[in-house]
Design brief:
98% helix, rod-shaped, mainly alpha
Length: 107
């Protein structure tokens, strides 16, 4: 009978140890899970910040491209105006040269 009591005691003690180990394992698992969840949350926050930064940069680039396009369009307009003025001046110079040539032939 004593052996049976001792065996029962050992089984109960073993069960208690196993139960404690299981509880410790569950706690460690939950701790690791929570730590992983926190890291995922931080990662997601970083992703949101990066996406926000990318969106802001895209808007800035869009605005800069619009300004650059307007600047180029204005430059082309000015160059066209200058080309027209030069063409007109060349015609005037050609007329003056013709007059000078005629005058020199008449003299």
């Amino acid at each position: 009978m004593m052996n049976e009591n001792k065996r029962t005691y050992n089984v109960n003690l073993n069960n208690e140890n196993n139960s404690r180990q299981l509880q410790n394992t569950k706690k460690r698992t939950m701790d690791v899970f929570l730590e992983l969840e926190n890291k995922i949350d931080k990662h997601n926050e970083c992703v949101v910040q990066v996406n926000d930064s990318i969106s802001k940069l895209a808007e800035e680039i869009k605005s800069m491209n619009k300004s650059l396009h307007e600047h180029i369009r204005e430059s082309v307009r000015q160059q066209t105006d200058i080309a027209s003025e030069l063409k007109s001046m060349n015609k005037s110079l050609a007329t003056i040269v013709d007059i000078l040539v005629k005058n020199s032939k008449q003299s």
